[in-house]
Amino acid sequence: MSEIMRKESEKPVISVIMPAYQAAQYIGQAIESVQSQTCGQAWELLVIDDCSTDGTMEAVRRYASDPRIHYIRQRKNRGVAAARNLGIKKAHGAYLAFLDADDWWDADKLRLQMEWIKRTGAVLCCTGRELMQPDGTPQGRVIGVPQSITYRMLLRTNVIPCGSVLLRADAAREFGFVCDRYHEDYILWLRILKKYGAAVGVNVPALKCRQSAGGKSRNKGKSAVMQYGSYRYLGYGRLRALYYMMFYTLHGVWKYFGASGGRQK
Questions:
Q1: Please, what is the angle between helix 80-90 and helix 184-196, to 10°?
Q2: Neighbouring-strand partners of residue 96
Q3: Residue 237 main-chain phi, psi, to 5 deg
Q4: Cα–Cα distances in angstroms (integers) from residue 179 to residues 79, 153, 172, 185, in the given order
Q5: Which stretches does DSSP call E strand in 74-198?
Q6: How many CA atoms lie within 13 A of 76 on its CB side?
Q7: First and final CA of the chain: distance in angstroms?
Q8: What is the spatial distance between Cα 69 and Cα 90, in angstroms, rounded to a whole number?
Q9: CA distance 201 to 146
Q10: 55 — alpha (psi -120 to 50), left (phi > 0) or beta?
Q11: pLDDT single digits (tens) 149-178
Q12: What is the pLDDT along the chain (265 residues), one digit of tens a residue?
């Protein structure tokens, strides 16, 4: 029996949720980085196509021979939060991981995280990331993560990259992602940490994060507005939200001009 057929008969331990919109150019690399994982756990990949018109469906069909990969197409464009929520609903694994269709992972990413989760009992584990140019070449910038991330620490800025997360599925289903007007992933991480305690970080750049020209991370003004809105959504008053925004701003200056070496291009 082939390795793929053997894993098809197993219930997946990890469900990888990949929202995709106009992702035909890059999604192959993302899918293949999931296929290359060395974790030794059965997995499934749920590609949630948010009504793409650029050939994303055809790009995913090239992997149809792998029964662990499931393609789900939404009838209308609903945004990344809704796509991830649909993936959470459809997932069978006890753990969930998220990967954007234009990013990719190192082969040992899930293995390292499963080992660390088993060692610590943490509900959520993340990794560091390496920033990449749109063409996939390195920018020369790596952003690490702390070994332990508390709720209070996370309030000051989001140090958990969504594409690096592995977490318990029951915790994700309990809260889900909110609308795309805010940092929907950040709100979810805060809710999980507030209830379940600190997250753990594997400080290796296992996530390769492609920096597109129109991405949220590039539009600092929009990102700051969304950050403030996230604090307000969580119930913090204006003064408290502004207090945390001060730390968010200082961290942003440090992240892009400081310790990782060199200014982001």
A1: 50
A2: 15, 167
A3: -70, 170
A4: 8, 23, 15, 10
A5: 95-98, 104-105, 124-132, 138-143, 148-149, 166-168
A6: 1
A7: 49
A8: 13
A9: 6
A10: left
A11: 999 999 999 999 999 999 999 999 999 999
A12: 234 434 455 799 999 999 999 999 999 999 999 999 999 999 999 999 999 999 999 999 999 999 999 999 999 999 999 999 999 999 999 999 999 999 999 999 999 999 999 999 999 999 999 999 999 999 999 999 999 999 999 999 999 999 999 999 999 999 999 987 889 999 999 999 999 999 999 999 999 999 876 555 557 788 899 999 999 999 999 999 999 899 888 887 766 665 443 333 3
Residues 232 and 241: their CA atoms lie apart, in Å, by 7
Cβ-contact 143, 131 below 8 angstroms = yes
Quick one: the chain helix, strand, coil %, rounded to 5? Answer: 40, 20, 40
DSSP string covering 228-253, please? HHHHHHTT--HHHHHHHHHHHHHHHH
Q: Is 130 helix (H, G, I), strand (E, B) or coil?
A: strand
Quickly list DSSP for 142-154: EE---SEE-HHHH
Q: Tokens standing for 250? A: 């200082």
Instruction: Please give the DSSP secondary-structure letter assigned to residue 131.
Output: E
Residue 236, exposed/middle/buried by CB under 10 A (0-12, 13-18, 19+)?
middle
What's phi and psi for 251, nearest 5 deg? Answer: -65, -40
Q: What is the 3-state secondary structure (H, E, C) of 190-227?
A: HHHHHHHCCEEEEEEEEEEEECCCCCCCCCHHHHHHHH
Report d(CA 115, CA 133) in Å as an integer: 30
Task: Give 164's DSSP letter.
Answer: G
**Which tokens belong to 99?**
């990967």
| Token pair listed for 55 | 């050939």
Q: Are 169 and 94 in contact (CB under 8 A)?
A: yes
